[in-house]
Amino acid sequence: MPHTQQQFASDNYAGICPDAMRAIEQANRGSAQAYGDDPWTVRAANAFRTTFETDCELFFVFNGTAANSLALAALCQSYESIIASDTAHVETDECGAPEFFSNGAKILVARGEGGKLTPDAIRAFALGRTDIHFPRPRAVTITQPTETGQLYSLEEIGDIARTCRELGLRLHMDGARFANAIDSLGCSPADMTWRAGVDVLSFGGTKNGMAIGEAVLFFDRALANGFDYRCKQAGQLASKMRFLSAPWAVMFETGAWRANAAHANACARHFAAQVAGLPGVEILFPVQANAVFLKLPPDVMAALHERGWVFYNFIGDSARFMFAWDSDRARIDALVQDLRDITGARLSPEGS
Ligand SMILES: *Cc1c(COP(=O)(O)O)cnc(C)c1O
């Protein structure tokens, strides 16, 4: 049963946005060719190429784990390695799928502020061991925005890309929340990716308001060689592809992908501004996208749970709140009010 009242535990709690739903309905009028040979998939692919201002190669898959792990598998041999941040989704939340789909390429994790990799960390791995006993670094993956909602600036992406090129590494970007990053930085998708030196992008649709689906974009088309077979073998070739692709087409054409992200980001900023300074409440990371991580005393967390709020605690003793295209201001304000009540009651002796 769905929650009767909106929760902010994950941006995946949101439903399907109206434009994506309308696209599915429109794609459902009559039949169409299967496996991507349909007009909707052509329209979506062209919308991507227009939006990214380049003739990239792209593929639609069901989810982010598939997009990331198949993309990374395409960049590495089984005896090579992938440099990632220690909090990267590919490392902590994909059940070993990148290693599995690459037949054993190893993920090398580097510690970084807010989940961000640095050129120095990349260089340390790439140059630290060059002997036959160590899995040769071949790819770097960065998450934009990171799992804790931090952004790489265009300069930082450019610096990382230059480091990669210098060291013979390919650069992948996990853009599960790509649209949120675009909204925050206010730059073009091209500037945040291929113009900065990104080779392959996983672009998230699900957290942006679709029912399902991520896109994998190869800016260097040579790297996409055989990727269609990789998708099929991995069970990621949708037979009724049009239902994956139509929402992309419509959401690019109407601009909903940007508007959805802008709303989510604005909700995160609003929430953070309301809870800043509450006694015992600490905002753990700069709020640069649609995530707010709060450090809360255990009794405050318990009291929130008692009042019916659902949230995750998977990073330390923090509480994560995520905002999406459908986040309701009244519901956010109700959460803020509960936090005010709970933290205020802790301070006053009569409070219970
Ligand atoms: C949600 C998410 C993904 C995709 O996860 P799936 O559940 O496989 O769709 C990938 N990367 C990051 C950073 C995410 O937050």
From TrEMBL:
<dbReference type="InterPro" id="IPR001597">
    <property type="entry name" value="ArAA_b-elim_lyase/Thr_aldolase"/>
</dbReference>
<protein>
    <recommendedName>
        <fullName>L-threonine aldolase</fullName>
        <ecNumber>4.1.2.48</ecNumber>
    </recommendedName>
</protein>
<dbReference type="GO" id="GO:0006567">
    <property type="term" value="P:L-threonine catabolic process"/>
</dbReference>
<dbReference type="InterPro" id="IPR015422">
    <property type="entry name" value="PyrdxlP-dep_Trfase_small"/>
</dbReference>
<dbReference type="Pfam" id="PF01212">
    <property type="entry name" value="Beta_elim_lyase"/>
</dbReference>
<dbReference type="InterPro" id="IPR026273">
    <property type="entry name" value="Low_specificity_L-TA_bact"/>
</dbReference>
<comment type="subunit">
    <text>Homotetramer.</text>
</comment>
<feature type="domain" description="Aromatic amino acid beta-eliminating lyase/threonine aldolase">
    <location>
        <begin position="7"/>
        <end position="294"/>
    </location>
</feature>
<comment type="function">
    <text>Catalyzes the cleavage of L-allo-threonine and L-threonine to glycine and acetaldehyde.</text>
</comment>
<dbReference type="InterPro" id="IPR015424">
    <property type="entry name" value="PyrdxlP-dep_Trfase"/>
</dbReference>
<dbReference type="GO" id="GO:0004793">
    <property type="term" value="F:threonine aldolase activity"/>
</dbReference>
<keyword id="KW-0456">Lyase</keyword>
<comment type="similarity">
    <text>Belongs to the threonine aldolase family.</text>
</comment>
<dbReference type="InterPro" id="IPR015421">
    <property type="entry name" value="PyrdxlP-dep_Trfase_major"/>
</dbReference>
<keyword id="KW-0663">Pyridoxal phosphate</keyword>
